[in-house]
């Protein structure tokens, strides 16, 4: 698992696994509706990842606000934000 991305979990792996057969179909026949299917699958995975990342970031911000910290020393990105 990706330790530098704490929001990346089993559910995210499932979304990636759903995208793989769609990409394989597109590689075999890049014309037609396979390209649309691949774009839809990519879009769905991206939206899921964005939602998970935002959820993680919001949790970290709320934790730091509850502790009374004015700085976020450890975000979901693993970088310091002032």
What keyword list fits this structure?
82 residues, mainly alpha, 2 helices, elongated
How would you characterize the overall build of this protein?
- The chain has 82 residues and is an all-alpha fold.
- The chain has one domain (10-67).
- The chain contains two helices and no strands.
- It has helices at residues 10-28, 33-67.
- α1 (10-28) packs antiparallel against α2 (33-67).
- The model has no long low-confidence stretch (mean pLDDT 80).
Short summary:
With 82 residues, this protein is an all-alpha fold. 66% of the residues lie in helices and 0% in strands.
What is the topological layout?
Elements: H1 10-28, H2 33-67
Helix pairs in contact: 1-2
**Biggest β-sheet description:** none
The Cα radius of gyration reads: 17 Å
The secondary-structure element order is HH
Number of β-strand runs = 0
Structural class: mainly alpha
The residue ranges in which pLDDT falls below 50 over 5 or more consecutive positions are none
Shape: elongated
Per DSSP, what share of the residues sits in E-state strands of 2 or more residues?
under 5%
Helix content: 55-70%
The overall average pLDDT, rounded, is 80
From the structure provided, what is the oligomeric state, counting identical versus distinct chains?
Answer: single chain
Distance separating the two termini? 28 Å
* Number of helices, where a helix is a run of at least 4 consecutive DSSP H or I residues: 2
> How many distinct folded domains?
1
